[in-house]
Write a structure and sequence with these properties.
The complex is a heterotrimer of chains A (354), B (340) and C (400). By secondary structure, chain A is α/β, with parallel strands linked by helices. Chain A has 14 helices and 14 strands. In chain A, strand 2 (51-52) and strand 3 form a beta hairpin. In chain A, helix 3 (67-80) runs antiparallel to helix 13 and helix 9 (245-263) packs across helix 13 (307-315). The termini of chain A are far apart. The two termini of chain B are 40 Å apart. In chain B, the strands form three sheets. Chain B has a four-stranded antiparallel sheet with strand order 1-2-3-8. In chain B, strands 4-5 form a two-stranded antiparallel ribbon. In chain B, strands 6-7 form a two-stranded antiparallel ribbon. The chains are: A alpha/beta (354), B alpha+beta (340), C mainly alpha (400).
């Protein structure tokens, strides 16, 4: 280092100290919301499981698909009009909240159960959109074991994925009924089911949809039975951080859009016709508002005016998403169950678009 | 950072110009160090400031109260008694004990196996030599995570279950673990029994523990074998010849003459391997063994206290590794040849 | 025949105990080999590998940009062929000077066999198979050309040739990531073997200088530098990599002002680098310890400055001693990239996990893990082989 350079050194250090001193004030000045960050970035970063059949996985052609993935796509379509502008990030159940809180992902669409402590500002401080899948925790056992009740599991090993509500519910239920048991915890779903299939555990517990889905892929699906006990309510919902209500609202109403479209019978196939119809007929005020032909729902949410048609054109309505990923159109073949529209006695219900 | 020219050969006495303070031999290093320290301090302060500000904004400022709350989850296999009503810190302690259990047994086992393998590469039997070589080359070049999965799912979980389990008097090896006879309540000798389709015995090692331990030992032993081989190779050939001319057998030569001399080369090399083993034990979660990392992961998920839990983890593993280093340094001092 | 029998007898059945060991080992090898073959040829369903071979190779890299990766592969093959030929065209003093020793013929055979058999085993489309053949042919052709005409090149040109390798690395980065008029491909779309190799090569290249600096720092007379290096090394050696990766992926957002954190693929690469540097520093330190102090004193007394003495006298000797353990660290580093799957990156193991979650391939875990093990073994064994060759070349007793 030349002497002249050395003379500059203290100055440089001082300057650095000064900059650091200023940084906190400078950083906090502008109230930039998540939406601004996402729009300027040009893509949505969506946290998914990445290895959960029916909900999120990567196909042989390298594209993501699944119910959780379609929520991400719907959000990208609402923001950019392009369902492809999503960067997916695989998260395991332990890192998902940290990733969301530190801003690594914008949206968590990863079969996450909505709970009080996760929602509360003093807990995980998340903000949940409406549940996209109502599930309940179940137990699967080999049919040959002859087990039909939780009591019969006393003293037996049970496989469970670690870091999930499943693990806690299992502990609670077993404690309530005073049944001793041995939990065997694995980090990923595939390990959990592999251990169960190899006979290490007498039972495996998880969300019932997941159990049914996995069972359909077993070599002999009939050799396994779901116990009738439902151990918990598991409303699986997309989540964002509590700190940004504007962004949380956009996500909430994007999910509601999927529900409302199914209720109104708007599908991926007929969306163009419906928009044309709404434009042509000024009397259909409900439809015109919903499809963004009139009113300013989009503006209020900070989304484009035609976000609804964009979403439906990209992923279809909730019913289509369900059928395609976990319902009759998939290998999982799950029943709609409580995930039917409210008019058919289910829980899928969108508040009015007014 | 380059040293100043004043360090080089000094000019002729007549031409000495007064050396300014910032070029003085004694001063320069301290100025450099001061600058480095200041920079580091500034960067750390910057990062910490950000951390505190961001955590406050997210409502996640460091607290440790959650350690006292009931954990709400169970641990299947513990030396310390634990249940869901006990606080988180008890769970973490139970996890730590589980980690220590696998680390300590792993250290002993891999040292034994590794030493044997290292010695076998000097065997007279060409097949044994070749096989040792192959083993080391195969095991060293495949990631431990894959090997653990192999041991657990392919080897251990294909053990028979229930009544079909492998049974010897007082010992049962089943899919759920190894069961040993021992003194049960009231000093009765109790052998393994099948109750309600589940084996029960006073002493039990789960297959998860077994798979983790086997995987760790098999992997670390390959590395230790290389260290031992290097150590033995460093002993001059004359020592072998001298010992065998005294009538010692191959085994006697190795144990009584060569290994004691090789130790001073081997021990420093073992340190790194031992530390690796301690850290690699955190892969336990892949095979369903509940170690410290696994408990911490569940805790993190339940409480959302990511920073605190990660700090605890880092601190604990660091302490564990420093402890191993300390032991090994002591051992190293013992085995060094005292020449004077 | 008799000398061979005698040799066998001496090697395998010298004593009764030896004989017993031999028989037992043979039985063990036979049983193990049979079990593996029986499974691989009879029970395994390899469709999962065939259908997902692109995913395993490059992850979710966009299809219309994959020509860039083909180009890169061709360039790498060309560079390999060239350097292979050039190395062989200069007969070494420690061996006979044949241009095509037996080793080389075996290597050529393996390259040809792999390029012919693997693509068709993987069920690739014919154009893709042809591309692999062309790449293999290019490699072998350049090997022959360089071996034949390499010595005729002017000396300055020959000396500049190694400079092509770092340039190629940078060019490879550009080809993969985009820039310079190429459409950018986001790192989140990189994956598979490509990401594994990229992460490990990046970390290997950068941890080397860092590790050397740390090793020198640890031996420095300046207490602050020494203690700084000690703290750094002990901290990184004491922390499990998975916690560091977790910190890097999920905590860095807290440490930096909003939005300036680098792409997570690079973050993981930096964490790997910082981690590996601590281990490398220890390897280099043991090498430095092996260089007698007199060497430094002699160099200084010749009028070299301390940095000069270190770079020209001490370090070359220290690094040669430290080479085997350094390569050992590199191999560990390559394997440690599997931990990236635990933080959600789509490197080989991460890709494998999502492939196994595809409903069409559920339950095909053994095939996938086996393939991964073979791939890793090949990469790591190649590193080890290269290091041993380098060791032989640098060994002063064979150079003479």
């Amino acid at each position: 280092m030349r002497p002249s350079a050395r003379r500059w050194l203290p100055l440089a250090v001082l300057l650095a100290v000064g900059l650091v001193g200023c940084a906190p004030e400078g950083g906090g000045g502008v109230q930039s919301t998540k939406m601004g960050t996402i729009t300027s970035r040009g893509k949505l970063i969506c946290g998914v499981d990445g290895s959960l059949p029916g909900f999120s996985f990567v196909g042989s052609d390298g594209t993501y698909s699944g119910l959780d993935v379609d929520v991400c796509k719907a959000m990208a379509a609402a923001l950019f009009g392009d369902p492809g502008k999503v960067e997916y990030r695989n998260l395991n159940s332990s890192e998902r909240f940290a990733a969301l809180a530190s801003g690594e992902v914008d949206l968590l669409s990863r079969n996450t159960t909505m709970t009080l402590s996760r929602d509360a500002a003093g807990g995980n401080a998340l903000s949940f959109a409406p549940p996209t899948f109502y599930d309940g925790q179940g137990v699967m056992v080999p049919t040959a074991s002859g087990i039909t009740t939780l009591k019969a599991l006393a003293g037996k090993p049970i496989c469970v994925e670690s870091g999930t509500t499943t693990e806690l519910n299992l502990a609670d239920r077993m404690r309530e009924q005073n049944i001793p048991y041995t939990p065997l915890k694995f980090q990923t779903g595939d390990q959990t089911y592999a251990a169960y299939l190899q006979g290490r555990c007498v039972a495996v517990t998880s969300d019932r949809s997941q159990l049914a889905g996995k069972r359909s892929s077993f070599p002999q699906p009939d050799a396994h039975t779901l116990l009738p006990d439902v151990m918990s309510k598991e409303p699986l919902a997309p989540a964002t951080v509590n700190a940004d209500p504007v962004w949380a609202d956009a996500v909430r109403w994007t999910v509601n859009t999927l529900f409302q479209a199914e209720e109104l019978g708007i599908t991926k196939a007929n969306i163009a016709a419906k928009v044309a119809e709404a434009k042509a007929n000024p009397n259909q005020a409900d439809l015109r508002r919903f499809l963004g032909v009139e009113g300013e729902f989009g503006k209020q949410l900070g989304l484009p005016a035609d976000f609804v048609p964009k979403i439906i054109a990209a992923v279809g309505n909730y019913g289509e998403i369900f059928d395609r990923n976990v319902g009759p159109g998939s290998r999982l073949k799950l029943d709609r169950g409580v995930n039917r529209q409210w008019k058919e006695g289910g829980l899928i219900y969108s508040p009015p678009f007014r | 950072m380059a040293r100043s020219p004043s360090v080089g050969p000094s000019p002729a006495p007549g031409l000495v110009t007064p050396v300014p303070w910032w070029r003085h031999r004694r001063v320069v290093p301290w100025v450099v160090q001061g600058a480095v320290a200041l920079t580091v301090l500034v960067v750390v302060a910057f990062l910490l400031g950000n951390l505190i500000r961001n955590l406050t904004a997210a409502g996640l400022l460091l607290t440790w109260n959650w350690l006292g709350q009931p954990a709400g989850f169970d641990i299947s296999e513990t030396l310390l008694p634990f249940n869901a009503e006990l606080p988180y810190w008890r769970g973490l302690a139970a996890g730590l004990v589980n980690t220590l259990r696998v680390v300590i047994t792993g250290l002993v086992g891999s040292t034994l196996v590794g030493t044997l393998l290292g010695m076998a590469s000097f065997s007279g039997n060409a097949l044994l030599r070749g096989l040792t070589r192959t083993y080391v080359e195969v095991v060293r070049n495949i990631p431990l995570l894959l090997q653990l999965v192999f041991w657990y799912f392919v080897v251990f979980l294909s053990l028979p279950n229930g009544t079909a389990a492998l049974q010897l008097p007082g010992v049962v090896l089943a899919k759920s673990g190894l069961y040993l006879a021992g003194f049960g309540d009231g000093l009765h000798w109790i052998g393994p029994q099948l109750q309600n389709g589940v084996w029960q015995a006073p002493l039990r090692l789960s297959v998860e523990f077994g798979a983790l331990l086997t995987g760790l030992i098999a992997y670390t032993a390959a590395f230790i074998a290389e260290v031992v081989r290097g150590g033995i190779a460093a002993v001059p050939k004359g020592q072998w010849e001298a010992a065998s001319s005294l009538g010692l057998s191959w085994w006697q030569t190795l144990i009584k003459v060569v290994l004691p001399q090789a130790l001073r080369v081997i021990v420093p090399g073992l340190n790194t391997q031992f530390i690796s083993l301690a850290k690699n034990s955190s892969l336990a979660v892949a095979v369903g063994y509940t170690d410290l990392y696994s408990v911490a992961e569940t805790t993190l998920n339940q409480t959302g206290r990511a920073v605190e839990v990660v700090l605890l983890l880092l601190g604990t593993y660091l302490a564990l590794d420093l402890f191993i280093s300390l032991l090994m340094n002591g051992l190293n001092r013992l085995v060094q040849i005292r020449e004077r | 025949m008799t000398p061979l029998l005698r040799r066998l007898r001496q090697d395998l059945f010298a004593t009764p105990a030896d004989g017993l060991v031999t028989v037992l080992l043979l039985a063990l090898i036979g049983a193990g080999g049979f079990a593996v073959l029986h499974w691989a040829l009879g029970q395994a369903q390899w469709a999962v590998i065939r259908a997902n071979s692109t995913l395993f190779a490059v992850g979710r890299y966009p299809l219309d940009q994959q020509w860039r990766l083909w180009l890169l592969t061709a360039l790498l093959a060309a560079a390999t062929g060239l350097s292979w030929g050039m190395l062989r065209s200069h007969p070494r003093p420690d061996r006979g000077g044949s241009l095509w020793p037996r080793n080389d013929w075996m290597a050529v055979g393996m390259v040809a066999l792999l390029s012919l058999a693997l693509p068709s085993l993987l069920g690739l489309a014919l154009p893709l198979q042809l591309r692999w053949w062309a790449i293999a042919a290019l490699l072998l052709l350049l090997r022959w050309l360089a071996g034949r005409f390499g010595p005729l090149l002017p000396a300055p040109l020959k000396r500049c040739l190694p400079l092509g390798l770092p340039l190629l690395y940078l060019l490879g980065m550009v080809l993969i990531g985009g820039g310079l008029a190429l459409e950018p491909v986001s790192p989140s779309q990189w994956g598979g073997l490509m990401l594994t190799l990229l992460e490990s090569s990046f970390a290997i290249l950068l941890c080397f200088p860092l590790g050397v600096l740390l090793a020198l720092g640890r031996r420095s007379d300046l207490p602050l530098l020494r203690w700084g290096s000690v703290v750094y090394i002990e901290f990184f050696r004491g922390a499990p990599l998975i916690t560091l990766l977790f910190l890097g992926q999920n905590m860095l957002g807290f440490l930096l002002p909003g939005g300036v954190a680098p792409e997570r693929v690079w973050r993981a690469a930096w964490v790997l680098t910082l981690f590996a540097a601590a281990y490398l520093a220890e390897a280099v330190r043991s090498g430095l310890a092996a260089v007698p102090r007199g060497q430094l004193e002699a160099a200084r007394s010749l009028g070299l400055s301390t940095p000069q003495a270190f770079t020209t006298v001490v370090l070359p000797q220290a690094l040669r001693v430290a080479l085997p353990s350094m390569v050992g660290q590199f191999i560990s580093l390559l394997q440690d990239t599997t931990l990236l799957s635990l933080i959600g990156l789509m490197e080989l193991l991460g890709t494998a996990r999502t492939v196994m979650a595809n409903p069409a391939f559920l339950g095909r875990n053994a095939e996938v893990y086996f393939t991964l093990a073979v791939l890793f073994w090949c990469c790591c064994a190649a590193l080890g082989l290269g290091s041993r060759a380098l060791e032989r070349r640098l060994n002063p007793s064979t150079l003479a």
